[in-house]
Specification:
By secondary structure, the chain is α+β, with helices and mostly antiparallel strands. It has 3 domains: 226 residues, no CATH class; 151 residues, no CATH class; 68 residues, no CATH class. Helix content is 29%, strand content 16%. The protein contains 14 helices and 16 strands. The chain has a 5-stranded antiparallel β-sheet with strand order 1-10-11-6-4, with no helix packed on it. A hairpin with an 8-residue loop joins strand 2 and strand 3. Helix 11 runs antiparallel to helix 12. It is flat. The relative contact order is 0.08.
Length: 540
């Protein structure tokens, strides 16, 4: 059977020198570009002779930022969801764009992740706009990028949430522990990521999502736009230094903001949603309706169980219990009287145990009694009445469901009559409540009807266990034989002729450790050459 596919998702990823950025998102002191401090140590010999001269040099190096980017290569986009000009996209799905480079959306973000290490805003954002929500911009000589005019910025996603709408998709597991399946430790994950990408660069890619609920049968244009104001200004041919700071949002206002409604874009495509009719639409058509209190309940007559076991009067005194199932009417849909009636039927056996339950437990315990004494004595000592005590033959009793799972052979009392240590646990409830014995009997019937099929499946599974046990037995034999050979041959030889013992064990020196390296490696580091322990030397 082929293994299940495994996917992993990281909230962000950056490679190289960008991981050394320390400035935080929103830091007003970072004007346009993030910078890192680089220090080097220079050394040289004086012309006039003398000792070596050294000089430490430190310099802040500015990194590329969104204000330096005025276009992206269209081939970096490997997939859009939906494809260009799709006309029946499900309106309850989220549009997305995938990039081949797994670190691309965060590569030029001029900030470090937040204190948790999980939140880092991408420098680009995917927005989706209906045709009535924007106007195409006019191209000009000073416009490095095409742009759109958006008069109502409320259609744009909240700037503070953009970190949540970008991630890295891996086609294998990155989790080193169970906790990382939910909340990854980025410091621990990044080394594994680098190792995976070095082996297969195609195993991961990055993705932007648009957090917008789409309308039915509507045309939409998707745009990849700058996240930060420096990128917006650069794309419009304006000075990026005019932004309040490097991580200021591209759709946040400030005094003197130029071309406030214009937004350049790096990539775009068009699609149209289809009409409603998907699974979500059908589910939303379902409307809650009041349910009859009798739904999921079946009356069960318990007046005459047979086998000299007394009947049950029931809460209403009519000898009826309610057999339920998985389907039940929610409590909030019941009237107070109906809820009271339900509670009465659920607690029919209070105080516990009822005479019915005592007699049923004695009937179920008879096989264990027969194992300790003859049938006549066991019947005479039973609490089932004279018809049983007068019978010298064993009876066909009721099964004890779950006996192997609970590892118990009796209910309520032990052989000596002492009370059971836990007479209200699940195995007692299962066997002494008729409402639970009925479905248990039904399940036992299914197992009996399909016993052959289940046994075949069990034997197929046990085959692997038998093979594993055979390997373990062979390993134990090998260990025993090796130990015996060592005690009988090598130990005496080592005492009388250590050099010959060393030569005899030379073939396995590469597999035996000498703490922490192998013996062969220790020999190569020793002054004594390996040839000294070879068979050719001692054979002469």
């Amino acid at each position: 059977m082929s293994p299940l596919s495994t996917y992993s998702f990281l909230p962000w990823l950056r490679q190289g020198v960008a991981n050394t950025i320390t400035s935080s998102d929103g830091d007003a002191s970072v004007k346009t570009r993030a910078s890192i401090n680089v220090s080097v140590q220079l050394g040289g010999d004086p012309i006039g002779g003398g000792g070596e001269l050294t000089q430490a040099i430190a310099q802040n190096i500015a990194l590329f930022s969104p204000g330096d980017i005025v276009g992206i290569e269209s081939r970096s986009v490997v997939k859009t969801e939906p494809h260009h000009w799709i006309t029946n996209f499900e309106p309850n799905y989220l549009p997305a764009v995938d990039f081949y480079d797994e670190d691309f959306p965060w590569r030029y973000t001029p900030a470090a992740p937040d204190g948790s290490g999980l939140k880092l805003r991408p420098w680009i954002t995917l927005i989706v706009l209906a045709e009535t929500e924007f106007d195409p911009g006019q191209s000009g000589a000073n416009r490095p990028l095409p742009y759109i005019t958006v008069s109502n910025p409320s259609v744009l996603p909240p700037a503070g949430d953009l970190w949540a709408w970008a991630h890295v998709h891996f086609n294998e597991s990155l989790a080193g522990s169970a906790s990382e399946l939910v909340s990854p430790d980025m410091n621990a994950v990044l080394p594994r990521v680098e190792s995976i990408l070095a082996g297969n660069p195609d195993s991961a890619y990055s993705r932007l999502l648009c957090p917008r609920r789409l309308a039915d049968n509507t045309g939409y244009h998707a745009f990849v736009v700058p996240t930060f104001e420096t990128g917006r200004l650069a794309g419009l041919g304006l000075d990026p230094n005019g932004a309040p700071h490097a991580t200021f949002s591209a759709w946040a206002g400030y005094p003197g903001r130029p071309e406030a409604t214009n937004y350049p874009y790096y990539y775009t495509w068009f699609f149209r949603t289809g009409t409603t009719g998907d699974f979500e639409y059908l589910v939303r058509l379902l409307k809650a309706q009041p349910v009859d209190p009798k739904v999921g309940i079946r009356n069960m007559d318990v007046q005459d169980p047979g086998s000299n076991i007394p009947g049950i009067a029931g809460p209403a005194g009519d000898g009826v219990l309610r057999l339920g199932g998985a389907l039940q009417v929610p409590s909030q849909d019941l009237t107070p009287d109906e809820q009271t009636r339900r509670d009465q039927y659920d607690n029919w056996d209070q105080p516990y145990p009822q005479p019915f339950q005592k007699a049923l437990a004695a009937f179920i315990d008879l096989p264990d009694d027969y194992a300790a004494q003859d049938a006549a004595s066991a019947n005479a000592a039973s609490a089932l009445g004279p018809r049983v005590s007068d019978d010298p033959d064993p009876l066909i009793t009721a099964p004890l469901y779950g006996r192997w799972h609970a590892l118990t052979q009796r209910l309520l009392t032990g052989r000596d009559g002492t009370p059971a240590p836990n007479p209200t646990n699940w195995v007692h409830k299962l066997n002494l409540d008729p409402r639970f014995r009925v479905p248990a009997a039904s399940g036992a019937g299914v197992v009996e009807a399909n016993a052959e099929e289940y046994m075949n499946d069990a034997w197929q599974q046990i085959g692997d266990v038998i093979a594993a046990n055979q390997l373990i037995r062979r390993l134990h034999l090998a260990i025993a034989a090796s130990t015996r050979w060592y005690d009988v041959h090598l130990t005496p030889l080592a005492a009388t002729s250590p050099e010959r013992a060393f030569m005899l064990s030379a073939p396995v020196a590469g597999r035996v450790t000498a703490s922490p390296t192998t013996i062969t490696y220790a020999q190569t580091q020793s002054r004594v050459q390996p040839v000294v322990t070879s068979g050719a030397v001692w054979g002469t």
